[in-house]
Structures are given as C-alpha cells and as structure tokens.
Amino acid sequence: MQQRAINAVLTGVTGTALAGMLVAGVVAASDDTAPGEQQFLTQEAVAAQQHAVAPQQQKAGKETSAGLAEKREAEKKTSAGAAEKREAAKSKSSDTKREKKDPDVLLSGTTTASYFWDDGSGVRGDTGAPASGKPMQKGMFASPSWPMLTKVKVSYNGRSVTGFVGDRGPGEPSHRGIMLDLDTYTFRYLLDGGKPESKYVAGTGQGHLKGLKWEVLDWGKGPGKGKPQPFGS
Length: 233
Prior knowledge:
- The protein contains 2 helices and 6 strands.
- By secondary structure, it is of the alpha/beta class.
- The model is unreliable at 1-41 and 93-99 (pLDDT under 50).
C-alpha cells in the first residue's frame, strides 16, 4: 500500500517534469524561429517605409524643380524689365538730344567775326547807309556773300544773339577767314556780356571773336545761300 503511494507520487513528479520540458521545448523552438521572422518583418517594414518615402521624395524633388523653374522665370522677367528700362532711358536720352537741336537751323558753322557800325558818320571807315537799305541797328550783321535779310543766330562764350544780314562786309578781312561783321553791341555782349564804349568802339582792345558759331535760321531772297564765301568771290 505504501509502495503504491510512493509510485503515484513519483509518477506525478515525472509527469510534471516532462510537461515542463515539453513546454520549455516549445518555447525554445518558438524562440529559435523568432529572429528569422523578426528579421523578415523588419525588412518588410523598411521596404514599406522606403516605398512610402519614395513618392514623398519624388514630390519634394518635383516641387524643388518647379521652384527653380519659377525662380529662373522670375529672373528672366527681371532681366527683361531691366532691358526695357535701359531702352526707355536710351530713347528718352535720344529724344532729349533731338529736342535740344533746333529744327529751324538750315546751316551752321564757325568763323571769326569782327564788328562795325555804319550810320553815315564816316567814323572808323564808315561807308554810309547799310546795303540792305535798313538803318544801322543792334542785331544787324554784315556778310560777304549771304543774301540780304538772312536770319542768323550767333553764339560765343555761352551767349547768343539772333540778328539778320543787313550789309556787306567785312571787305579784305573776309579773305583771311573773317566772314561776319557784327554790330558793336552784339560783339561786346558776346565777348563778355558788357556794353561797348560807344557805337563805334567795343572798348575791349579785342577786335575779333575766333570760333564764333553761326546758324542760319532763314535765308533771305537772292543768291549766296550756303557756306559764306570771301567778299567779291
């Protein structure tokens, strides 16, 4: 009776031990396969993540490319705008130059000028009344070849006077390049802005203006149009 009880106890212990060993084996087997499965699952997760990230990267790349394209387009527009401004500035500058040029000028040049005052007094070689029949006056010039009453603008030292051809002269000096005689008042004003000592004397000790600019604004009736020619030529 006692022996059977002992055997029963041993059987129970042995069964329990075997059961524990079986459970441990199962667990061990389960643990042995776990790394492979975990690795497989990890690779799948990485692949899935890469698959999910790739479209985002592509999208980001497209957005960056689009941004660069917009930037280049904006730069082109800016460059085009700058070019238009430069062209506008050039056009404005050209317009300004055209506006400064007197459209009424028919002919222009430079010469050396002297002065005179012919009123019939006989002073300083006065030969009498001017050839045009007009009385001697301020703004009357003498030319060796231009038609009478030709309208002329003369400029010197930043000052200008508009007058007309009313007499012939200068005589022999025109052969030496002195192609205009100015009335005494015009001569002195162009020289230094002053007034002459008298009608017959400029009062400066200087009898010629070299480099005087002349501009023909209107030709008088008669021959002689063009560059001034020496007296009697």
